[in-house]
Amino acid sequence: MSSRSGRFGIAAAALLAAPVLVGALYAAAGALGLVGPGASGRPSLARAVRVLTEPTVVQGTLWILWVAGASTLLSGTVAGGIAVVLRGRGKLEGLGRGLAVLPLPVPHLVAAVGGLLVLGQSGLLARVGFHAGLIDGPAEMPALVYDPLGVGLILALTWKEVPFLTLVAVSVLGTRGDALERTARGLGAGAGDVFRRVTWPILWRGMLPAAVAVFTFVAGSYEAAVILAPSDPLPLPVLTWERFVDAGLARRADAYVLALLGLGIAAVAVAAHEIVRARLPGLDGGSQA
Amino acid sequence: MGFLIRLPEVARLGGCAAGLLAMALAGCGSDSESGLDASTLAGLPWDSVVERARGSEVVWRLWRGDPAINSYVDEWVAPRLAERYDIRLRAVDGQGAELVNALVVEREAGARGGADLLWINGQTFHNLRREDLLQGPWAHALPSAAFVDSASTIVMRDFEQDLEGYESPWGRVQFALIYDTLRTPTPPRTVEELGRWIDEHPGRFTHDQSFTGMTFLKTLMYARAGGVERFEGGFDEDAYRVGRDSVFSWIEAHRDDFWREGNVYPSGVADLHRLFANGEVDFSMSNNENEAVTKARQGVLPESARPLVLREGTIANAHYVGIPFNAPNPAGAMVVADFLLSPEAQLEKRRPEVWGDGTVLDLDRLPDRWRARFDAIEDGPRAVPRDTLARYAVPEVAPEYHERLQEDWRRHVRDGG
Amino acid sequence: MTRATRFSALPSLRAWLVVLLAAWSLLPLVLLVVISVSGGWRFPSLLGADPGLDAWRSLRQSTGRLLPALYTSLGLGVGTGGLAAVLGLPIGRALSDLRGVWRFVGAGCAFLPVAAPPLALGVGLQYSFLRAGLGGSAVGVTLAHLIPALGYTSLFFLGVFAVFDRGVEAEARRLGAGGWQTLTRVTLPLLRRPLAEAFVLGFLVSWAQVPLTLLVGQGRVRTLTVEVLSWVQAGQDPLAAAGATLLVIPPLLLMGAAALGFQRAQVVAP
Question: What is the ipTM of this complex?
Answer without folding.
Answer: 0.90
